[in-house]
Amino acid sequence: MTDYRMTIIVPVFNESGNIERIASTFADYFVKSTTRSKILFVDDGSTDDSFAKIETVCHNNADFEFLKLKYNCGLSTAIKAGIDVITTPLVGYIDADLQTSPFDFDKLLKDIDNYSAVVGYRGNRKDTLSKKIQSKIANNIRRALINDGIIDTGCPLKVIHVNVAKNIPFFKGMHRFIPALIKLQGGRIKQVNVSHFERIAGKSKFNIFNRSLKPLQDAFAYRWMRSRNINYIIDKTNIK
Fold first, then answer.
1. What is the pLDDT of residues 16-34, one digit of tens each?
2. What is the CATH number of the domain that holds 40?
3. Contact residues for 237 (Cβ-Cβ < 8 A; gap 6+)
């Protein structure tokens, strides 16, 4: 039985054109990385043939697993579903569009032993102008409302200790606040500049509404949660 250190969650919703590319790119990464990792596809109720391709990839490679949700639940739920079943010490996260590179996981892994999570930020984004503007608006809203110190909360490249990830309080839209929610638990975050590429296949699932207006609602939800958050340190106990 192979001892994996990290499980990398890849949420999938109608990404048929990217599945084989994910498989080949990660197969190459696994050969070159010093950290033993595996992939967990989380199919979020795809309506194209994404899942059929995922089944084929997983059947042909022991380093690939899948979890299929019965219907589309959204990105935050897909990430949570993946975290719930992971048993490796670390969890990674990357989007199925591969606009970030698996090879940058090794940049994040260099410092993971000293932090609760190491997250990427896209220093040189290769998105369309409209997407850049939408993301800038969303990031500015988040910074103004919660001031969490995170440069690029939308960057999908992350490595988190599983015991930390399993304690994140989940809600819809949570994926935008993973670093902030970890910091709410007293966790330490490091941010690392990672590569970014144009989308080659498939279509973005985000628009001005779910990239700007929804984050505004979610930022207020986070502010409420932060104001009600419970943290404590046990001084003494005689429990055996």
1. 999 999 999 999 999 999 9
2. 3.90.550.10
3. none
